[in-house]
Amino acid sequence: MEYFIDVVVPLSIATTFTYSVNQAEFIFLQPGMRVAVPFGKKKVYTAIVLSKHNQKPSVYTPKDILTIIDEQPIVTTKQLDFWQWIAQYYMCALGDVYKAALPSAFLLESETILSFNSTLVVDLSSLTDDEFLLYQAFEQQPILRFDEVQKILNKKQVFNVIDELLKKEIIFLNQHIHEKYKPKLVKYVTLHDTYKEENELINLLDHELKTEKQRALVLKYFQLSTQKSTIELKELLEKAGVSKAIYTNLEKKQIFETYSLAEDRVQFSDAFLNDIQFTELQNKTIQSIQNQFQQHDVVLLNAVTGSGKTEIYIELIKNALQNNSQVLFLVPEIGLTTQLVQRLTAYFGNKVAVFNSKYSENERVEVYHHVLNATEKAQIVIGSRSSIFLPFKNLGLIIVDEEHETTYKQVDPAPRFHTRDAAIVLAKMFHAKVLLGSATPSLESYYNAYQQKFGYTELLQRFKNVQLPQIVLVDLKEARRKKEVNGIFSMKLIEAITEAFYNGEQVLLFQNRRGFSPVLECLSCGHVPYCTMCDVGLTYYKRQNYLKCHYCGYTMAMPSKCHSCHSHDLTTKGLGTEQVEEALKNIFPNKNIARMDQDTTRGKFAFERLIDGFKNREIDAMVGTQMLAKGLDFDNVSLVGILNADNMLNFPDFRAYERAYQLMVQMAGRAGRKNKQGKVIIQTYNPYHNTIQQVTQNDYKGMFKEQMYERLNFKYPPFYRLIRLQLKHPDYEKVKEASQWLASNMKQSVQGILVLGPQEPSINRIRNQYIQVILIKLPINKSANALKKAIQKSINSLETIAKFKSVKTTISVDFY
Asked: What distance in Å separates the CA atoms of residue 677 and residue 682, rounded to the nearest whole number?
């Protein structure tokens, strides 16, 4: 009997692959284990075993695996089921999901090593020029890598030359695979066994210690050994106040011994809080959520900003831990993790683990292992999008905080999943509960609650009955006419900032565009510098004095004259966070002004530094983008300024009004969170716009009804599903022709869908790739699976046409 396994490789390929194994390997292997497999002519990949069977493929002869990497599965069967659901629903390859789901340290590095056979006598006349060149190189250096061979021959295609040398047995081919993950080893100290007897110990203290520093080190060791069972070398040296050389000398004399233990890179201190004093309204809300969980697996908590949602979450987590369940706490922004970790570790200590992209590869591997082994160290995981792929064993509760946030949707690369929706499916696999929390729920979630698919609970009062902020509208048209404007600030806003500073309070200013200015323009000819690779103007950064593209990262020095007419009359237009920061510093030179945007939060601890600085009142005012709106809790903020509300409303997107409402309400919610009512000033040229009026009245239901009417009329979610196809190619005509062919094919062959386009997006070229977009609308009452298969069939047909083969198509299901 023959034995085979089906595996998934970390490549964007739709199919799985079958490999041959022997009987012993077949018995040992389980789904979820890693194996190293040869792939193609010279590649080696780390594959995950999906299944094992005895059916030989009819199309090809399976290769043997190279080695088994794991002794136990590192991927659970539920994870594999979840991966397959993601691949099927979001129309991507299973290999894409695998690559996204595991920390890259688990995807072993493959290096192809070529070794020289020095014992063989070679007829040099039988070698070609390239073969002889390599032969000489191997004589000098008996081991070479593939990339080194490419350099020696100055060619990319070297496989044929290597293949000939392999056939002639002049060289051997070895695959060296090594794991990237290395545990963090901490050095500990113990006294040598000889000195554990009293006589020897007296002899040591009286005769063998030659200097005062040696004596101080040994005595400090004894002192620490009465306090703890293990003594870290670093701690001993610090507390004894001696150098490592003193210790090394005693180690050589066999007085001390050193041993190492693996330790987690991220550790939190023990819990120090226990009970929370809930208000009567919070108690009712907790009881309501628990009652709703009796009938529904998913409950939407619509709670105003500053109502104490986090305390409610903590109580629900406590209940889940009492049932010995694991908890996943999802946050939309890595910056939110800092405050949340501080609050959760106060109650749960080292049961909290964090999993996001700001943590190092090794730190993520450690969390992965803790979750896989269901250890106490990761009973509660605070994570961003990728944390839904962790290997939970007994998941009991998922909390999706700020569930309306668009950052929950993965944009690139595949799988382009929505974390909130995927979390609901994951919870269903574990029979777990999901709590969606937001002060401004997404229309889809609110509609699901309205339709009674989800449970629903409201908390419409702030903690300790603190009033919601007072919202003041400033009509910029009127303000400019009356000359009540100082640059980018209205006089009302400047007066409010001055008053806040006078009272020792802090200020947040919101401008949803980074950089100094989005446009640099020549006043003589109107020329605007554009990115060389994208169809977009370059943003000006004053501090670095350069222009930058926010799509591909291209930069150029700030020009001294116009590139078109050589005029020196250049000016900037538009407003970015850097300009707001500078203008505020000019008005308030004695105040500490900081900025929070993508440019200032790149480092691992940049968020923490800014948030801690603001929380400790070292920063008087913070200027920022939408990062500021995402659930941050500062108790001394009395004023929030929104500098230009119209930018959000005029965005060409069917969700623009919903998002503008959410952003403004969330920003307003940062003000007056403790004891005193806060104030929000919104600067706008259109104060009577429906959405702005709904923000001032905190009228979520009014916004919901208005937007639902529009969505129903124009066939948008939640009444229709959206799939967006994006076609890219460096040749404009080719991508246009391909998109027209695809749209036409789908209109003819796929019944029951609406196909819009193809059309060019507002930015139609990024990284030298021209873009065409096709939007597909699927009725909610029809089987999505059948329609998706038909759409995929059309895309596959396009790829079979020779001239369109190089056109790249990306699919985004439930497009945001």
From this structure: 16
**pLDDT value, residue 520:** 85
Q: Read off the DSSP letter of residue 517.
A: B
Q: Is the pLDDT at 78 greater than 90, yes or no? A: yes
Last residue of a domain, one of 77, 108, 139: 108
Q: Tell me, what CATH number does 308's domain have?
A: 3.40.50.300
Is 542 among the domain residues? no
pLDDT tens readout for residues 603-662:
666 777 888 788 888 888 888 888 777 656 777 888 899 988 888 888 878 888 999 999
Phi-psi group of 545: left, alpha or beta (phi > 0 → left; psi -120 to 50 → alpha; rest → beta): left
Which residues, other chains included, contact 748 with Cβ-Cβ below 8 Å and sequence gap of 6+? none
Phi and psi torsions of 544, nearest 5°? -85, -10
Over residues 656-675, the mean pLDDT reads 84
Helical ranges in 640-699 per DSSP H? 646-649, 656-668, 690-696
Read off the tokens for 802.
Answer: 């020779």
50 and 30 in a single domain? The answer is yes
Residues 490 and 451 in one domain: no
Helix then strand then coil, in percent of the chain rounded to 5, is: 40, 25, 35
534: annotated binding-site residue? Answer: yes
**pLDDT confidence of residue 416:** 92
CA 442 to chain centre: 20
Residues 321 and 449 occupy one common structural domain: yes
What CATH number does residue 74 fall under? 3.40.1440.60
Q: Which residues constitute the domain of residue 200?
A: 193-254
| pLDDT of 158 above 80 | no
**297: closest CA among 422, 425, 384, 385?**
425
For residues 225 and 297, the model is more confident at 297
Measuring CA to CA, how many Å separate 744 from each of 306, 485, 715, 779, 805? 51, 53, 20, 19, 17
β-pairing, 395-401 vs 326-330, is parallel
CB 231 within 8 A of CB 294: no
700-713 and 656-668 helices cross at what angle (nearest 10)?
Answer: 170
Q: Is residue 493 part of a domain?
A: yes
Average pLDDT of 223-247? 81
Choose among 764, 813, 814: nearest CA to 792: 813
Q: How far apart are CA 190 and CA 241, in angstroms?
A: 18
Q: Residue 703's pLDDT is what?
A: 93
Which amino acid type is present at position 226? T
Do residues 485 and 507 both lie within one domain? yes
Check whether residue 250 and residue 301 sit in a common domain.
no
Total domain count, the chain:
6
What average pLDDT does range 458-480 have in this prediction?
A: 83
| Between 423 and 177, the higher pLDDT residue | 423
Is 247 found in the same domain as 321? no
Structure tokens at 536: 């977009």
Say if residue 104 is in the same domain as residue 114. no
440 in any annotated domain: yes
Give kind and range of the element (H or E) at residue 397.
Answer: strand 395-401
115 vs 145: CA distance, rounded Å: 9
Burial, 308: exposed, middle or buried (Cβ in 10 Å; 0-12, 13-18, 19+)? buried
Choose the final residue of a domain: 709, 743, 772.
709
Is residue 607 located within the same domain as residue 682? Answer: yes
> Quick one: which of 290, 685, 732 has its CA closest to 481?
685
- Contacts of residue 622, defined as CB under 8 A and 6 or more positions apart, other chains included, come to 506, 507, 508, 509, 593, 594, 595, 596, 610, 614, 628
| Peptide bond connecting 415 to the previous residue in cis, omega within 30 degrees of 0 | yes
In a domain, 43, yes or no: yes
Phi/psi of residue 437, each to 5°? Answer: -115, 135
- Strand 539-541 to 519-522 pairing: unpaired
Q: Does the annotation place 92 within a ligand binding site?
A: no
Looking at residue 204, the DSSP 8-state letter turns out to be I
pTM > 0.85: yes or no: no
